[in-house]
Amino acid sequence: MEFISQHPVLVVSLVKIAALLFIVMTALAYITWLERKVIAHIQSRRGPYYVGAHGLLQPLADGLKFMFKEDVTPPVSDRLVYTLAPILALSLALTAIALIPFGPPSVQVLGQPVFIVSNVDIGLLFLFAITSIGVYGVALAGWSSNSKYPLMGGLRSSAQMISYEVSLTISVVGVLLLAGTLNFNGIIESQRGYWLHFIPRWHLIPQIVGFLCYLTAAVAETNRIPFDLPEAETELVAGFHTEYSSFKFAMFFMAEYANMVTVSCLAAILFLGGWLSPFPDSWKWQLYLPGAGLLALGAYCAWDTAVNMKRIARLQLGVVTVLAVGGGLLCILIPGAPEVIQGPFWFTSKILAILFFYIWMRGTLPRFRYDQLMSFGWKLLLPVSLANLVVTALVIVWPLLVRHG
Amino acid sequence: MSLPFLVFFACALLAVVGAVRLILAREPIHSALALILLMISLAVLYLLLGAPFIAAVQILVYAGAIMVLFVFVIMVLNAGVEERTDFSKIAKYAGLPLAFFLLLWIAHWLAHAPAGSAIATGAGAPTVAFSTVELSEQLFRPYLFPFEATSILILIAILGALVLARKEE
Amino acid sequence: MSVPVSYYLVLSAVLFGLGVVAFVFKRNVITIFMAIELMLNAVNLAFVAFARAYNQLDGLVFVFFVIVVAAAEAAVGLAIVITLARNRESLNVERVNLLKF
After folding, report:
1. What is the pLDDT of residues B86-104, one digit of tens each?
2. Pick from A292, A380, B73, B146: CA 20 to 30 A from residue A23's CA?
3. Under an 8 A CB cutoff, do C38 and B31 touch?
4. All domains of chain C, ordered by start, with CATH?
């Protein structure tokens, strides 16, 4: 016990890292479930519904499959690089998530903020630095596979990633000019307040062009449709991860979804106000929103349990109902819990909204051809981001220019 | 051994291992990976010296863009050939001991600098990191002309690279 | 007690020396280029160490410019390497000897 009180930073950091890792891995698994369900419903079918109630145990089944599948290693040119590539991809993707603040720094345990794993003064710059090394995972995977399709897929994918990285970084500088700091908490704090008492002062409204540029560049950066030619099945077999099987392929898979989550978190922080709520703080009923949401989910699951035919599905849904109702009651009844849960609740809803938008795009749009993709990135997106930056800088500096002129 | 010393020796060891691997590797792709390891360990050393902005710029530009360019060129040119390095005898038997002696002399001179000199003691007071705001003030006020000149330099480099690497039609 | 600045300078000297050794003894053009980048990195470390020793920002500004110039030089140099590989069909620096007397 004295150890905990003497080294509060170390103990709290370790607990936070373990909790974040566990939550992020589970969330990645269930984002795959969400994607399959949403795309299925867009395409007028049902998606996974057999393995567990509503297909909720499908990620577990997929994980078991990946663990028990045979690990086929083709005659690669370089075993070190072949094994290093997926490790690099996944570890960098997970490291980027550690910089994100999930809630206000005022919620503290033992003097350390609970919802923020690391609060770096130049957090945004470090995040972009980590993303820029992530290109190596793709390039080295394609190279070491010793085969034509992965090599081309790897080269094309990494060329696409570094091209759109420039537009990604420039479209964010407008937000930095408005916020005045690279620190994530500082950027979120600069979005407090309301225009006309009810429109939140998020950077979405003054920087709408920047937001659209950022979203497009982010979709291209994470190799999602409509920019996923380098890993499309009809074009290049499976792109740079053709020759990988079982657990290494699972690592690439998880790295792609972790990149998606990171980019959505960044969009939420930079443009959508992070963990701030869209309603004014004086509307006190919003404190009970998370609890009410969980209770509604519990009620739906209870109805589903009663209606469902299969006994195993009933058991699973019963467990989910109990968890949801219990969680909802905890959120409402424990004193101080509603204020604490506000930050993560709004942050998670914004991330889920952007992820839904990503998955919606995947189910709806066709993909770009590679030369169209590259010319779009260099000839359209980069000039638009630069124009956005120049106009933002002019608008900010205009009072000074007018005064001296 | 306090924590700064531990971190310094770990990163210094990684940097020297990376440099030696660059020399001894048979394939250029391994040399490139060793150089990336060296750059990242140098970035950690910059953090230890209190320059977080330069550390981030090192990873973002050097390890994340320049080395990607190197790796691309190695892949495209398929430079997987082994190299025969025939060391000349003079270099091996006279050069290496002389280099070692020079290094010892430099280290001796640095370590026994007169007391009170900034180099020998380093920062006695707790180090305050250089702030990004101060650095940008320096870049945009006194050093504005070199800043703009480097942007023109990069434009010239882009044009030069485009012209040189274009296929002959 | 923080690490004395002379330690960083010794490390910078070692890395620079290793860069020179790689530059002199390697035969592949791309590896020679990487040795140049290694030397530039060693010099950057020395600059940042001196900036910390005298507590001035000018060292950091110089490091910034060194990184930018290294980027421009790498781009042009690698374009030259590609042209070389296309014309001489080899990346061995001993084959590029047309101007040798």
Report:
1. 656 666 677 778 877 887 7
2. A292
3. no
4. 5-91 (1.10.287.3510)
